[in-house]
Write a sequence for this structure.
């Protein structure tokens, strides 16, 4: 029984990732190009999500600020999920649905790129932050799952995982994040040394 669970999990994960890649190839390329353009002009990537998506936001920011595969200068990326004092003060004084949008207002500027991550596609605080970003002329993208949810209609570039399995969606989001890092590094700095 355990062997069957292990085999089916890996098979399903591979199947979901392969389908995502085929369905989102152009959008992944477009997003990497948009992000490279922003970085070249001194703008930043702002990333946000809840739970596992918060961890993905922090992971992606770390790959850009530190390095991914190429020795290169740091790239400006900021996860809005890391400052507990800001998050808790906004949640306490206003509402949890505002924890990312108020940070986008404070830290974002025209030319930046905002990436919201939501496995359901319906996280209210992610949706509000993306709407705030669009109102500020910040380019928007989202990593979602299921059918893209409400967020799918609110972004310039939607990278949707066509699955209703949260673990498979999250696994695919992580692969997409690594791929985006790889594409941006190669576009800005060429192949690894």
């Amino acid at each position: 029984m355990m062997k069957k669970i292990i085999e089916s999990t890996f098979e399903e994960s591979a199947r979901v990732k392969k389908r995502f890649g085929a369905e989102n190839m152009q959008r992944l390329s477009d997003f990497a190009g948009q992000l490279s353009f922003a970085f070249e002009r001194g703008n930043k990537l702002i990333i946000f999500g809840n739970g596992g998506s918060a961890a993905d936001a922090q992971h992606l920011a770390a790959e850009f600020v530190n390095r991914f595969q190429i020795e290169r200068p740091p790239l400006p990326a900021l996860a809005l999920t890391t400052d507990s004092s800001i998050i808790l003060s906004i949640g306490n004084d206003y509402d949890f649905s505002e924890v990312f949008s108020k940070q986008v207002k404070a830290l974002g500027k025209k030319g930046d790129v905002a990436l919201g991550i939501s496995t359901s596609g319906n996280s209210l605080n992610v949706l509000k932050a993306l709407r705030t970003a669009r109102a500020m002329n910040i380019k928007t993208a989202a990593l979602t799952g299921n059918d893209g949810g409400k967020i799918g209609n609110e972004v310039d570039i939607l990278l949707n995982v066509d699955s209703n399995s949260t673990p498979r969606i999250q696994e695919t989001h992580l692969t997409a994040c690594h791929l985006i890092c790889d594409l941006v590094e190669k576009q800005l700095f060429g192949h690894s040394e």
Notes: The longest strand covers residues 139-145. Residues 157 and 166 are 21 Å apart (CA to CA). The beta strands are 45-49, 77-79, 113-118, 139-145, 157-161. The domain at 2-189 is CATH 3.40.50.10490 (Rossmann fold).
